[in-house]
Structures are given as structure tokens and as C-alpha cells.
Amino acid sequence: MGQLEQRVAVVTGSDSGIGRAIALLFAREGATVVVNYAHNEKKADEVRQQIEQNRGKCIVLQADLSQYQQAVGLIQQAVAHFDRLDILVNNAGMEIHSPFLDVTEEQYDRVLDVDLKGAFFCAQAAAREMVKRKAPGRIINISSVHEDLPMPQNVPYCCAKGGLRMLMRTICLELAPHNITVNNIGPGAVDTPIDADVKADPAKYKALLDEIPLHRMANRKRLRNWRFILPLMLLPISPVLPSSLMVA
Length: 248
Description:
Blueprint: E1 8-11, H1 17-28, E2 32-37, H2 41-53, E3 57-62, H3 68-82, E4 87-90, H4 105-132, E5 137-142, H5 155-175, E6 180-187, H6 196-199, H7 202-210, H8 220-223, E7 244-247
Parallel strand pairs: 1-2, 1-4, 2-3, 4-5, 5-6, 6-7
Helix pairs in contact: 1-2, 3-4, 4-5
């Protein structure tokens, strides 16, 4: 029996990268998973097939989380389908690399709307459902080491992740009386599609690796072993205090 039997988990942006790995892990541990994607239905369906081939349970729901109604609607659809929600993982994210002096309003809005606004309103909608049902819950934000560390030419992303840190630190205090915990996980550089443009530019890729003591990005095999996330999920009580967990 897995550690997440009879739990329902929404994992945003779970068609690829870190979100995909978390969705597959949760399904292996017995959770019923809501696989979310914004644009790539084919990739999301691959995750569904992999979960079902291993006798897991999931549904696939499309939502562009930069849009308020779609972010809230994702949570509402999940609850309507399963009549409960135990876990939300705010994973969906993006970045646009540009010198600060060249960042446009459109670029700023696009990154902040996905990375911060989407996470904010998904968390709010999920917490409302948990409180309404008087059920304990877990909210996890996949943040970044750049919630603390500056990264030149990636200012909107750093602003969004810094905001995500303060979101976690603030709402955990409001939600604790309802037995809802909130934590951030702040990965370093991970070899996922979000950094494809960096890998394609030798100068940017070298600069990135020079900042990492091990001089490498975390690979996808390492993602499959993210079992350290499970103690954050355990219900009815989790021993982990509200915090940002930084991982390499």
C-alpha cells in the first residue's frame, strides 16, 4: 500500500519536467492524480498512459493558469470529479531570459501571471475547498533557488519566485488553524524543458554551470527519486514546519 492511498492530488504543469515526475511519483504511492497541462495535450496524455499502465488513477485537465477563471476552474473541476482535494502542487512555471533594460510589459506579465498569479489563485481555490470540507490539506509550491538568489537577465522569474516565497510564508499562518500546511520546494538547475533555451546557448549554459558547485544540472533520473517530498504530503499530520526546502 502506498503512502498516498485515497488522496486526490492536483499537480499543475504535470505534462513535463518536475511536475511530470511528481505526478508519476504520487500515482505510484496510490494517489489519484489530476494531470494538468496548458498547451501540450499529447505530453499530458503520455503521463496519463504511464500512470494507467502501472494501475494508477488519474484524469487530465487543461487549464492556462495565467487566466484567473481557468486557474479556479481547474480546482473546481477536480473537486467536482472526485468530491475531494487533499493535495495541491503548484508546479506550472515559465521564464523569459532578457536583460532588465529590455524586458517588456508583455514579458513581465506573462511570467508573473503563470508563475505567481496562477499559483496564488490555485492555492486560494484549493484552500477554500479544503476549509469548506473541514479536511486537512497540503499545498506545495515548486519554487526555485532564485526565490533567494539573484539571476541576471531573468528578473521577472526571480520576482515571481520571491513572491512565491512570501506567499508561502504568509498563507501558512492563515491556513494552519485549518490543518492545511504550505511549503515551497526550491530546486536548483534541473534539466527540463524550461531551461532548453539556456542549454542551447553555449555561453549561457557555461555561465549556469559555473554557478553550480557540482558543475552539472540535476537530470531526469534524479527527478524520479524525489521521494523526500512525501513527508510533506502525509495526512492527517506532517512533521515539516512551513519552510522552503532547497534541493540540488
